Amino acid sequence: MKYNREMWEQAVRFHGHACPGLAQGFRVSRAALRLLGVKRAEDEELLAIVENDACGVDAVQALTGCTLGKGNLILDDRGKSVFIFARRDTGTAVRIYFHGGQKPPDPEFMRLRSLVEGGLASPEEVERFEAAKLSRIEGLLTDPEEDLLEWRWVEMELPVRAQLFNSFRCAVCGEKASESRARVRDGQVVCLSCAGSYSRGWQRGT
Ligand SMILES: [Zn+2]
Ligand SMILES: [Zn+2]
Q: Which CATH number does 164-206 carry?
């Protein structure tokens, strides 16, 4: 199968490097745009819900225009190669599961990868690994779609459009923050960074 080289290069520029994960997101995005009969979203007309936060999500952002900043990219991290795309105008939604084919991973590729990742590969092994990676990417870009992914139409209620919130000035640090993230501490309205440890679990600090 042929692929759109210009679009692929656009995804690579956005992501920073070419990798199998990006190729996966590229195929998923191409399928989604075709199935839904739409082009890259200028605004919020298209919505993506992604079930992982790996490399492929950058291809989704570059190709479909569903981006974190516009609020039409929602991360629902279930650690799965599942991507749901929906059109706001028609309410049509498609769920795509990328399985990557039934071929078992090449043991030589896995061996080279663990050597390279562990910093133990010789220059010759690094070169062989890079060549194997390139051919893996090429395969993911050109294999027939039905060998790589499964899709089905789904019915779902779409999340509301991105909202703009008023901001308030934190009583402790004096910085502005969105009202949707306000907390109360000692009777004062404060930002999350100043709210301290009322909540259990992980705290980012300032
Ligand atoms: Zn990557
Ligand atoms: Zn504060």
A: 3.30.60.20
